[in-house]
Amino acid sequence: MTYERGTIDAALAAVAGDEPAVIQDLRIAFVDSATRALEAMHKAQGGAEWREAALRLKGLAASVNALPLMTLAGQAAEMDEADPALLERIGEVVARL
Predict the structure, then answer these.
(1) Residue 49 to residue 22: CA distance in whole angstroms
(2) Average pLDDT, the chain
């Protein structure tokens, strides 16, 4: 997703400045964290764990202005239980990061 990648890179550049290697390291850390949050959503046992993992992902997405991911994670955080269809959509967005 080109738009998302550009938005994330711009947010990371605001933190790292004109340091491509640092931006790349931050991007790798972001994608790794988003993947772990998604895995936590998959493993969630009950609504509280689901919401906690979704809120973690939403905050992570907000930190780099990844609006589509933030929106989907926010929708998930408002649910009382896991939603497989929404989880799949979130997984697709994370996979394109």
Answers:
(1) 33
(2) 90
- Quick count: other Cβ atoms within 10 Å of Cβ 68? 16
- For residue 4, give the amino acid letter: E
For the segment 57-61, the average pLDDT, to the nearest whole number, is 96
| Full residue range of the structural domain in which residue 34 is found | 2-95
Domain count, the chain: 1
- Main-chain phi, psi angles of 66, to 5 degrees: -85, 80
Q: What pTM does this model have? A: 0.86
In angstroms, the CA 60 to CA 56 distance is: 6
Residue 1 has pLDDT above 90, yes or no: no
- The dihedrals phi and psi of 60, each to the nearest 5 degrees, come to -60, -45
